[in-house]
């Protein structure tokens, strides 16, 4: 259960990814942010941008880190749209279990959208690593 006033727990999966303790398929990295493939994508090309600064929700994240996430999200979303030839995309960011948040480290979802193509269930079905790597390579070509 993730609550709005939770203290940051650095045992969460994204903290482990940031420390290099868990594998991840990186798309882009700078001093303040990391962008990588979501392993249970709701659409082909679904990826995440996280701040390196620890924060559970949007309310905990200092404004400069928040701004850095948006700058990276714009860069990566532009690449995702080109790589997937997507006519649209969604940015989504969930705060607390009540809103559907499952990982207690702030993150922005980037979800390419195509007319008539429904999103898959949230955080439900792991994608094959080879497929994720192939999609990541296409996205990186535009970064
Ligand atoms: P939230 O529910 O917190 O908004 O989103 C968490 C996202 O992280 C989900 O879309 C889920 O598929 C993804 N996710 C969960 N565990 C991992 C993981 O170990 N690696 C990666 N790359 N994504 C993960």
From TrEMBL:
Q: Which superkingdom is the protein from?
A: Bacteria
Q: Which GO terms describe its biological process?
A: nucleotide metabolic process
**Catalytic residue positions:** 107 (tele-amp-histidine intermediate)
What terms describe the molecular function in GO for this protein?
catalytic activity
Q: Which SUPFAM superfamilies does this one have?
A: HIT-like (SSF54197)
Residues in HIT domain copies: 13-121
InterPro entries to which the protein is assigned, alphabetical: Histidine_triad_HIT, HIT-like, HIT-like_sf
Which ranges form a coiled coil? none
Residue interval(s) of motif Histidine triad motif: 105-109
- One Pfam annotation, family name? HIT
The protein here is known as: HIT family protein
């Amino acid at each position: 259960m993730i609550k709005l006033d939770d203290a940051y727990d650095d045992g969460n999966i994204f903290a482990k990814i940031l420390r290099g303790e868990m594998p991840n398929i990186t798309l882009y990295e700078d001093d303040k942010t990391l962008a990588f493939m979501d392993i249970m994508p709701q659409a082909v090309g679904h990826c995440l941008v996280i701040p390196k600064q620890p924060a559970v929700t949007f309310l905990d994240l200092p404004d400069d880190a928040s701004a850095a996430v948006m700058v990276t999200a714009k860069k990566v979303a532009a690449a995702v749209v080109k790589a997937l030839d997507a006519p649209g995309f969604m940015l989504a960011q969930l705060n607390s279990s009540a809103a559907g948040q499952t990982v207690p480290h702030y993150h922005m979802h980037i979800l390419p959208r195509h007319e008539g193509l429904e999103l898959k269930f949230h955080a439900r079905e792991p994608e094959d690593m080879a497929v994720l790597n192939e999609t990541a390579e296409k996205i990186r070509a535009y970064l």
